[in-house]
Structures are given as structure tokens and as C-alpha cells.
Design goal:
The structure is a homodimer. Helix content of chain A is 37%, strand content 20%. By secondary structure, chain A is of the alpha+beta class. Chain A has a 5-stranded mixed β-sheet. Chains A and B meet through helix 10 and helix 11 of A and helix 10 and helix 11 of B.
Chain lengths: 472, 472
């Protein structure tokens, strides 16, 4: 209420100026006024997700929230990520024989989808725990193989994300926070284990990776010294990569860093040339370094009481799971959606498995689908249009806590990538984070069938808001 | 004039619809009408460059022009460009001892600017024709060294563009048109010969390039077979490079093509590693392949009677020269402008030489400054803003004959690069082609002082229009 005396105060300006109409909700009123040459400021407004009103009000009123989110974001942006070593998973993670890691939140063999089952069968054969796919399947169904999410070991794995003890992993360090993360070596596209294929050629490639690729990369990295992965990610978003489904420039920059020391490592020339051709021939090779770099950043933001920022988004092909800073390691899960995208060859939507992989950790740190505007050329690979890509990133700023100046998007006049997805903002606006993804065939053994766009189920975010409200 | 009967014809729709105002010239009238809620279509219109009206009218009315430009553009777009060999200039061009090539239109020692003089002094020392810079200068001033533009031999050279017999050149072939072009190997930035530096370290680097770099690249290219340079240019414009002052992705992709065969060439490991480090450390290395690829394309468009398309834009540091398809090898020259840009260290505008180099051949084919929209990150290197970059490419479509679908700009929804600069359109609109450029120090021996933006002098285009009018 405005008293008469206040007209001499700052509010008096309100009456001195031309009246201005603010319109929200249906656009009809604004359109009519515009046609009559009135100045209208349209405001995009929607009610929050139904059923969350009370919990959301409680979370948004939490006096800790603003400072907690600022601290979590600051930690996320300040983290570092250097490639320091390449080692077998058994050695890196102390992964015991008979234990396999997988992508996403926890899942059992019974609930596992086709591509995860296919990758587990392949890993069982690779480790020599079974002689045939049928034997492998029986062993896995018997429950005597232990399954554990990569995230529970501080690691990440794209698509099925299956890691067995003999597979080699990149080791990344965040010295600022004294933290380590790991990720497998990328096998390429098409018929590969992480998409659920396990035919002899898939296993032969994995054996070559353990015998030649891993050791040569290890020798080159140790000889060269740490490679600043975060700096390469910074550059790649200036070169049309969004770091999830486009990693062309990143892969080339990694190759540039490694090649001289690969050459000087003393390894046989034929092996060095084969390694270079393998890495060169796979535009996604660098994804498996972007992912652990993102994991280090989001892990640094984890565990801040009262923070509503997302620290993990991961899918196991059955469930989508998220973790939130203020609730620590708790998973909030819901059934994963089926991606919408472009298909390889004669594959179509009927062949697609629901969303799978830890690679949405790239979106969790603000790149990938959140930074689609940095990678307009990607629409030729995942579908959509260039204006959609620009619009999507614009929308992502509405659900994030801030911007990452290290990941500056040139076409947005070097605006930092939208970073720190806030579950409260997601539930308040109804806007879900955009994810770019590969699409696995739903039948075990198929491999990749396409690439596209997908969103997490809203239920993960509403569950997180309810849990946060309960802890206020 | 409209007769009463025509009201039943297609023009009757004009009266059936709401009236619409088309405004051109001063924006004041359009603004007033818009404020009154009238629908206004503003049209940007300017008179042609003063003094060209009659000649321009004649050229634009030339019945050959439309078909001639279509043919020239078609030939430009259909050309191919493959790297097929690396050889010394003496062998490649039959360059005689005592003959040096240089960038831009013909120029004498007397009229040569500082950086061109510096590069010529360096080449004289490199070839052993003089023992000291003073001796070299005296020899050059005596007129006993023959100077010739690179373009007269079908070659191109960035900045000073000085080529002497012992320097190694990339050899590119356009098999579709049975044509060859050549360019020197890129030395890197800073204190380098092409920017006019000639100190002992500059000459040592050139000697290493002739002794190690050239032969190793030759062996790798011959072993591998032709490299499709045009395909790499296609990819680089999707990765934030405009191919003139940003060649990061292009250099990395070239490296990817060459490294396996460099490794398998049998050359000493230390030399291979040094070559890889040298190429990796110079984001502009690929420029010297973009340039001859562009030369092959524009040469294919040359010599079409009646065509008003530009086939060469080149600068020698004193004059800017252009050639036009319909007038063949005739140069139209005018004093070169001084670029506007960002300076290295403590250098400033007072240190800048006028525009120099054959590298504007990249703009002649539609990339470089014409495709600034493809490379928003470049504004951090050459100055300007991202919206300027987008606006510039938009404007370039007004002075070009068509678009190159092979060079698709993702952010413009994959619109092809504006290609085939039309001198008639330049003179008609007053819009000059935008060029991105390195800036050489004006004092011989300085080297690079910055990078920026520059435009050709309008006088080159008006002279071309007058010459075309005379031949109609």
C-alpha cells in the first residue's frame, strides 16, 4: 500500500512516466495491446510442477540455500582436471575379480536393459569367467557377479559403462581438491561393448586396447607429464564441440598433446602408428576424458548442506538417477526416457533402448546439451535445428545457478556455459535439463543405433525437492 | 502504369490487402510510422560510388554478365584441391637463382614497404647471395635480383610472400581442372621472414625447414597419397575456423592425416617428434594449404568473358591489387590500407605496415573475413565483436554471386559461405569485402605486431568496373 506522502519518494517516478503493461500467461492480451501500439513487457510464467508447491516453498525459503548454492558452484568452477596416468581398472580401483562396474544408479541383472546385459556378457567373456555368451548369461543371472555403479567408486562410464578389472582407465586428478576420477578408454562407435555388443570382433578390440593402447597411452602420459583436460575442454567449446556428442576438436587436441611422447616412447613404430590411427579415427575418443573431468568438478560441489544443485545425472538403461549436493550420495530415480534422434542405417525408434550412461555428467557440469549453442553443427548428428540449439542454451540459464567463464560460448558473446542445475529452479519452471546422447539398441548385442536428444524424468527432481524439504 | 482492366488480374490483390509502406533512405519516416502502429518495410538503399554511374550501368546491362558469373561461380565451386607433394621452389616452379617471388601485385625494391624489404633481405642471406643485411640491401637496390609476384607463377604467399629457390613449397592439384598451385611452409608467428624479420634465428628456422621439415612432409605425403584439402576446409568452418586468421582445427586435422605416415616414414624418431611439435605449436600452419586451395578455385573461375567476379585479391604492403574474371590477368591496384586490430605486447597502430600478403585469396573464395560468422571466437585475436562478425557475413551476401554449399556455416543454419565477390555489386552498394589479416611491423626486420581487420581500397573495384565497361 502506497501512502500519499510516498509520492515525493522514489515511487513517485512510477506516476511521472508513461504507463507500461506487463503481461503474463496467455499471449493474446499482449498481442492485442501491441497491435494498438502500446508498450508491453511479456513475462513467461508457469505454475510450478503440481504437488510440489509446499515442499518447493520450503526449499526456496531455506535461508541456507543461496550461500550453499554459491559455495557449491564456486567449488565446481574452481576444480581442476589433469590426465595423470592410464592404468588397468584392477589396479586403479582395486576392482576385485568378479566385480563389474556399470553406468547409472544401482541396478540388478533382472532389471537391466538389453545393452547393459550385452556389455556385462561381453565383460564376463573378456575376463574369462565364461566361455560362451550363454554361460556368461547364466553366471550373471546366478547373482555371483557383483554389480556396482561407477559413481560409487568415483568413476564414470559412457553408455552401459561396464568396467571389468582388466580394462584400462584414464586417471584424472583434481589437485586443488585432492580428488581422483577414472574413465574407460573409448572404443569408437557402432558395434562396441558400451552399446551392448559382445561379438568376437568387439572382444578382440578390447584385448588390443588392454595389450597395446592402454600401455602406450600410459607410457606417453607418464613421459609427458599431466595434461590439462579442463584447458582442452575450454578450447573445444570454442571449436564447435559441446563435449558430449561432439568431441572432434577435443580429440584432435588430445592427440596433439600425446603424439610427440608416443613417438619418443620407444614403442614399436607399427604400434605407435596403429594407436594414432585408432585415436584419430574416433571423434569421440576425448569424451572419456571430458566425463571424469566433469565428475571431478561436480564431486567438488557435492555435500554442501542446503545446496539444491545437481551433482550427478546418470542412467543405467532402466532408471535415470540424480544426486544433489545437499543430500549427498542419495539417488533420486525414475524410469529413463527413450531418446528422440537420428538413426543409423535401417534402425528406427522401435530399436531404441531407454536412455543409458554416465555421460550426462557433462550436462551436470554445464556442457553437453546445456551448451548446445556452442555446437550448432551437432544438429546434423543428433537432430533438431540450429535455432533450437540456441534457444535451448538460452533456456538452460533459467535452471542453473551461474555461468562458467572457463567454458565461454563464443556465439553468445562469450557468455559462460550455464552451470549448476538447481533442482528447485527445475521444479519451479518445469524446464528440464537438455541432454545429448548416443542411442543403444534395446536388444543385447546390437550396439549403437543412433544419437539424439533426451531429458531426465521430472520425477527425479520432484523427489529431490521433497527430500530437501524434509531436511530444511 | 496500371490500367483499369488489370484490376481483375494478379495485381488486384494489391488493392484487396492492407496498404503497406516501403521506406528507403533516412530512417526517420519509418520510425514515425512504426510508432503509429503502421506496418513498414524498411529498405536499405544507397546510391552507387560517385563517378561510376555510367560505367556501372553499362556493366550491369551487359547481356553476358548473368551467365558469365554463373559459369565462373560454378567453376569456382566445382574445383578440387589435394595436397600431392612437398618440393623445393627451384624444382617446383623452375625458380631461377636470383629470382624471388613476393605477395601482391608487381612492385619494385624502391616502392617496397619495410616488411617486404626485410623478407627480401632475409631470402638474399638464406640463398647465400650476400653475407650481411647491408650487402643484401645493396644487391637488392642494384636491381640485379628479379622480383615477381607469386600469382604470376600460380603460387601464393602469406604476408611478404617471399619465395626463394631453396624454400620448400606445398604442391596442390585440382585434377578436375588440371591445374596446380603452390605455397610456402608456414614458419609460425612473431619474428618470422614473412612478417619481414631476418635475424639469425629466423634464417636458422628456415634452414631447418628446408633440411628436415620439407623432406619429412614430402615423404609422408608421398607415402600416404593425396590429402583432400577442400574436405578439411569444409570441416574447419564447422569448427570455428574462418581459414584466414583462425586455422586451429584445420591444422589439427592436417596433423591427423600426416602423423601415421610421418611415423612410418623411417625418418629418425627425434626428427619426426620435432616436426610434429613444430606443426602442433603453430595454429596457422594450415593457412598455407587453405591459400593454394583457394587459388585453385579462383583460378578456375578466371577468364570468363563478361564475368564481373573477383579472382584475385592480393597486397604487397604498398599496393592492393585485384583481378577480375572478365579481364583476365589485368591488375587493378590502389594504395593498401592500414589494418585496424589488436596489437602484440607494446606495439601499437604507429608500428603497423599497410596491408600485405596473398592470403586475401581466402576471402576471394568466400571464407576468411567473408565467413567471420563461422569463427566468432576470432574476435579475441583480431578485435571486433561477435554481433559484428555475424552482421559482416550477412552483408557479404549482398556483394557475392552465390553461396558455397561445401563451406556451410552452422550458425547461419548451414548457409553456404558467400562466394564470388562481384565488382559490380561492390560498386553498386559501396560495401567492400571484409578481410581478416595479420599486421606486419612497418620497419624491416620487426616481424608481426598484431592482427586485425582491413578492407580493400574502393579504387580497385571502380577501376575494374571502368575496364569491364570498356570491354562490353
Amino acid at each position: 500500500m502506497m501512502s500519499a506522502t510516498s509520492l515525493t519518494g522514489p515511487l513517485s517516478a512510477l506516476l511521472a512516466a508513461e504507463p507500461r503493461v506487463v503481461a503474463c500467461g496467455a499471449g493474446l492480451f499482449a498481442d492485442e495491446l501491441t497491435a494498438q501500439a502500446a508498450s508491453v513487457l511479456p513475462v513467461d510464467w508457469r505454475p510450478p510442477v503440481a504437488g510440489t508447491e509446499t515442499a518447493l516453498a520450503r526449499v526456496m525459503a531455506d535461508p541456507r540455500r543461496a550461500a550453499a548454492n554459491a559455495l557449491a558452484l564456486e567449488r565446481m568452477l574452481a576444480s581442476t582436471a589433469e590426465l595423470v596416468d592410464v592404468v588397468p581398472a584392477g589396479e586403479a580401483l582395486g576392482l576385485e575379480p568378479g566385480t563389474f562396474l556399470h553406468a547409472g544408479p544401482p541396478v540388478t541383472w533382472e532389471r537391466a536393459s538389453g545393452p547393459l546385459r550385452g556389455a556385462l556378457i561381453g565383460a564376463t567373456l573378456l575376463e574369462g569367467l565364461a566361455a560362451t555368451p550363454e554361460e556368461a548369461q547364466a553366471l550373471l543371472a546366478s547373482g555371483s557377479v557383483r554389480l556396482e555403479p561407477c559413481h560409487h567408486r568415483g568413476a564414470v562410464g559412457p553408455m552401459a559403462g561396464v568396467v571389468s578389472p582388466s580394462m584400462w582407465l584414464f586417471t584424472l586428478r583434481d589437485e586443488a581438491n585432492d580428488r581422483t576420477s577414472w574413465c574407460s578408454l573409448n572404443e569408437g562407435l557402432g558395434r562396441v561393448l558400451r552399446y551392448g555388443a559382445y561379438s568376437p570382433d568387439v572382444l578382440d578390440r578390447l584385448r588390443w586396447m588392454s595389450r597395446v593402447l592402454g600401455p602406450l597411452l600410459r607410457d606417453a602420459v607418464r613421459r609427458r607429464g599431466p595434461i590439462d583436460v579442463r584447458a582442452i575442454v575450454s578450447q573445444m567449446v570454442q571449436m564447435g564441440d559441446e563435449g558430449h556428442n561432439r568431441n572432434r576438436a577435443g580429440t584432435l587436441m588430445l592427440l596433439r598433446e600425446l603424439v610427440p611422447d608416443l613417438i619418443e616412447s620407444g614403442a614399436p613404430t607399427a604400434d605407435v602408428a596403429e594407436v594414432v590411427r585408432f585415436v584419430s579415427g574416433n571423434d569421440h575418443f576425448f569424451l572419456n576424458l571430458v566425463m571424469p573431468a566433469a565428475k571431478l568438478a561436480t564431486a567438488a560441489a557435492s555435500g554442501v548442506p542446503g545446496s539444491t544443485l545437481v551433482t550427478v545425472m546418470a542412467r543405467n538403461g532402466t532408471d535415470f538417477g540424480i544426486q544433489v549436493s545437499g543430500t549427498g550420495d542419495t539417488w533420486f530415480t525414475a524410469p529413463a526416457e527413450v531418446p528422440d534422434g537420428l538413426y543409423l542405417g535401417s534402425y528406427g525408434p522401435q530399436d531404441a533402448n531407454p536412455d543409458i550412461g554416465d555421460s550426462a555428467i557433462t550436462e551436470t557440469v554445464g556442457i553437453g546439451g546445456l551448451s548446445l549453442a556452442a555446437a550448432p553443427a551437432i544438429v546434423r548428428f543428433i537432430g533438431g535445428t540450429v535455432p533450437d540449439a540456441l534457444r535451448t542454451t538460452g533456456e538452460m540459464y533459467e535452471i542453473t545457478a551461474g555461468e562458467n567463464p572457463a567454458y565461454a560460448i563464443p556465439i553468445l558473446d562469450f557468455r559462460g556455459a550455464p552451470s549448476g542445475i538447481d533442482v528447485a529452479k527445475v521444479v519451479r519452471t518445469g524446464i528440464l535439463p537438455q541432454i545429448t546422447t548416443g542411442i543403444a539398441g534395446r536388444v543385447a548385442g546390437t550396439g549403437q543405433v543412433g544419437a539424439g536428444l533426451v531429458k531426465p524424468p521430472m520425477a527425479c527432481f520432484t523427489a529431490a525437492v521433497h527430500a530437501l524439504a524434509a531436511s530444511c
